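your task:
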Amino acid sequence: MTSIPTVLTSDELMDKAFSRASKIQKDGASALDHRKKTALAKVTASGDIVTSTLNDYVERFPRIEKGDDFFPELVDLTIGIDHYKKSLGAVRWASSRTEKLKNECLRNLRRTKDVTYIESIRSSFYGRLASVLKQISGDLLFLQDAKNKFRKLPSIAPDVATAVIAGFPNVGKSKLVSILSTAAPEVAPYPFTTKGIIIGHISDGWRRYQIIDTPGLLDRDLEERNDIERQAILALKYLTHVLVFILDPSEQCGYPMEKQLALLDSVKKGFPDVPMLVAESKCDIVKSGSGRYFFSSETGENMDTLRENIIGELRKIRFEEEGQ
């Protein structure tokens, strides 16, 4: 993705344009010629600064169209594609409007022979330019917020076999991912520590696979889910080659096993064709005896076994994609 520029506020952009213009002075053969040349240069400089800055925003922000794919849906969820396109359109309009106002002002300056009228023409341009920028002040603020959100979006390779870690909040997903991969998710003993999708990589000799830590899922209808949970659903929908579902039989996550198992059944029904590993965390506290995989991120018990099983499933996906 092209580097996205920092977006100035409308006041900052006006200050930048007017400050640059205020330093300009031109020599002339007469008082009229001096003032006219100086005013022409000031108007040109301030107008060009605004148009070039706004055009840079339009060019360097990514083009995003709604579509049935992970990244557009994630952008729509976290930023809002309709609002995003509206704000870019407003900035494009402001750039075009500024260029038109500048050219009108330059024509009027070139035509006048009244030295006292020159300052009035320039001041009028400054006022109209400030008015245009104030009209898009909200759009500029939105785009700066969007820029910050774009920076936090995960960089995902769609052609790399991927394991997605899912389950209730605080069952140990982030800790597991931090041990298995290069990712360094924040880990703390409260729900929804993971505020978005976190991407790590797990090595298998010369091969590398993706492993994704998703926000905690709760067992409720999609329309009732919050934006954090919806990010997890997007990851499951578009990125999952292997699903690793984590249960916490100690129930220290704050959710009884009954609810955790109900969510597991719901996920199985929603993704019947996706290979799934079900593993119980925190075996240093409780071993349920269910016969499922179990592990402890704290003591390391069975971590190597779980890692090899995840890699084993990912190898199958890789080989299928390569036709081996």
Observations:
- Residues 81-111 form the longest helix (31 residues).
